[in-house]
Amino acid sequence: MKYEVVIGLEVHIELSTESKLFCSCPVKFDAAPNENICPACAGMPGIPPVLNKRAVELGIIAGLVTNSKISSVTAFDKKNYFYPDLPTGYQITQFFAPICKDGYIDIELSDRTKRITLKQIHIEEDAGKLVHTATSTLVDLNRAGVPLIEVVSNPDFSNAEEVIAYLEKLRSLMTFASVSDCKMQEGSMRCDVNLSVRETGAIQLGTRTEIKNMSSFKSITEAIEYESNRHIEALETMSEVLVQETRGWDDDAKETYAMREKENFDDYRYFPNPEIMPVVIDSSVVDKLKRNLPEMAHEKLLRLTEQLKLPVIETKQITASKTLSDIFDSTLALTGNPKEVLNWIVVELLSIQRGENKSVDDIVIDTKKFADIIKMVEQRTINRNVGKKLLQLLVEQDINPTNYVTEHNLIIISDNSSVESVVDEILNTHQGVVSEFLEGNQKVYGFLVGQTMKQLGGKADPKVVNELLRSKLASME
Amino acid sequence: MNPKHIAVDDTIMRVNMPVMSTTEIFRGYLSPIDAHVITLLEANDYTINSVPLSQNFGTDLSELPLQQVREVFKGDISACLVNDPFGSFKQLATKENLIFLQPSYASVSRYGLVQHVPSMDQIGILAKDISTAYELLSVIQSIDPKDGVMTERNTVSLTPNKLEARVAFDASLLNSTNDEYGELLNSIAKDLNAVDVKLIYFDISKQVMTILAAAELSHSINRYDGVRFGYRSADASNLEEIYEKSRSESFSIGMKLFGILGVFVLSQNNSKRYYEQAMKLRRMIKESLDYVKYDVILLPTEINGNNYTNLAIFSQAPLAGLASLTFSKGNCGIQLLAKPYHEQQLLETYNRIISKD
Hints:
The complex is a heterodimer of chains A (477) and B (357).
Chain A: E1 3-14, H1 53-65, E2 69-70, E3 73-74, E4 77-80, E5 90-93, E6 100-108, E7 113-125, E8 129-132, E9 137-140, E10 147-153, H2 160-176, E11 189-199, E12 209-214, H3 217-237, E13 245-250, E14 255-261, E15 271-272, E16 279-280, H4 283-291, H5 297-306, H6 312-319, H7 322-335, H8 338-355, H9 367-378, H10 384-397, H11 401-407, H12 416-429, H13 431-438, H14 445-455, H15 462-476
Parallel strand pairs in A: 12-13
Antiparallel strand pairs in A: 1-10, 1-11, 2-6, 3-16, 4-5, 4-15, 6-7, 7-10, 8-9, 11-12, 13-14
Chain B: E1 2-9, H1 36-43, E2 47-51, H2 66-72, E3 77-83, H3 88-95, E4 99-102, E5 123-127, H4 130-140, E6 167-169, H5 179-191, E7 195-196, H6 202-220, H7 239-250, H8 253-266, H9 271-288, E8 296-299, H10 307-314, H11 316-320, E9 323-329, E10 332-338, H12 343-355
Parallel strand pairs in B: 1-2, 1-3, 6-7, 6-8
Antiparallel strand pairs in B: 3-5, 4-5, 4-9, 8-10, 9-10
Helix pairs in contact in B: 6-8, 6-9, 6-10
């Protein structure tokens, strides 16, 4: 018998606000436990919630970039959920009147484009975090009250490839619209996977399980594969009875495990939160936000490749990340040479990032200084190798490249006669190597270039060194 | 009596002071903040005593806090601020020759007021006389950005009206009062030239109030778990037991009943049947008040029955977010309701009633 997998996603995305959803506590990822809390977000009595207007704006923007309908009136509800990390015993969310409905996202697959439809996007507050020690469980409420959107898709996915393509596109849309930084490693983008399996062509969905809180593409792929196989095996062999439940993912064992039976929605005892006024969203507000939407990644790719004629593959590397894209834009604004900037980022900067085993989104660079390096190379004030070294130091130590060049005497040697005398000296010192070259061993040529550059402290123009070496070797033949 | 010396119920929080100290679950908890009204009162040189008036979120309707009220007004205290969603203090106002002025919903900041029934919570004024009540209202009503429900339109006008308020009275309610009281009320209505109206949802309002209050209260008390603050059972050996025993030992019977009822009316299959129907009725109650024909509604303060049946009288204002004034003239308890932010019409009507021999 043939089976098909049906998957729907609920993606939680932390909004890029300065403060929490209902109080003025700052939103910071790496604060000490319970540093960013106040009586309101710690669930103390007597403090009514005050809605963060920016969170609502970001919710609208999220709807706009996902082709959603923006509600003219949206409201907040209480969801009963008694758990130690939720200090009031309920979560403030949007159940009856979410901010956005009926959107869609087109995803690029290896062989086609597929449209994923969205049921809704709603705003809600995050819960705190439990920290388990050997002897106790501690509660950190820094995250309690942090604003999230939950993007709820319809069950339109059939496999992990589609899910990952969707999550990448969603991340791109949200980061380019500055709705969120979507850093999965920091938990600002998390995904619940709802999965069921049915016989191919059947109308009725199979028993659904939900895998909670997935925060890496690799785990999501593995979990979908594992869970699909578990369902299929259960259906084929009757080895277990599938039940509707919430499951977790064990990244070490590479398997899902049962957490609790899935609550149906009535158990949450939703009701409208009387402490927060319904929000009337005027169409003029939506229009204004729409007019000010920044360029999305796919739009940028089109512009850079068609208007600026940049190569597609390298440009895709830039537009795949909001961080890189921003570095490209601001560096380009200072240098005016898109090809050079693209080249420096894709070849040199990404090489440094890979060497440091960092995420692309963690690259921090002063683009003014980066532009200075590129300009110094372009103007032949320094050679490219010195530029690379400066870039490394800039990323690692935030040096001032212009001062560094002066202080360390790295200005290119523009006096050709000095270079020529060094070339003569190298040829004279390494006569054996010269003979090998003249006998046809081209490989040793690099050695002669290297020795010359070394003798010149790496500051010569490689082009000049090459020209002189080639010419002198030719005259010896 | 010192008009600048007032009491506040300790559900109105003050820094480092106990909160709802008569309710066991708050044992040992000291407020980290000052309520907004406290800040306003201190800025206006009031001397403030915190007093334990409210018990158990006002859920124990069988017994009114009579002795506590008498205790508060023994000395030179001129007024006391208290949240009264269930009308207990309004009933006492008529018995103790006091005034209860309930400002319109969201006209006084709830920042620092322990949540009971958030859609009806409102700091009210229990005062020895009417001028003290209105003077206090002018001090505590102020838009507060820390209460997200308040907006500029929630401003009470205290400028006297040039026109007399038009009064309405539902004479059919007298069928539920004793004869003597009914006659007194009827004569007041006549003196006021009251138009006859029928409050068509009056009889169902106490059920509506109970369902909605229970639903909201069940969420409001969810945070009291014995873990982070307040009472914790000494007899608990794990987290589940902390929850269970701390609540069992510290929640009153009223809190437990309201909590269970709230869970019931919001739970599977019941939400549509009870909570949603109650919400619809609440809207209908609000919409049935026809302020085109009248400005103020005259109501009794007691009908035959008990404190629970009286909830029908005192639920009208919180359900519809109205301003109300409760007082007595002689032995006759009177409640006046005005549309939101028209507290001055209550005062004008009060003056007419009191000045009439």
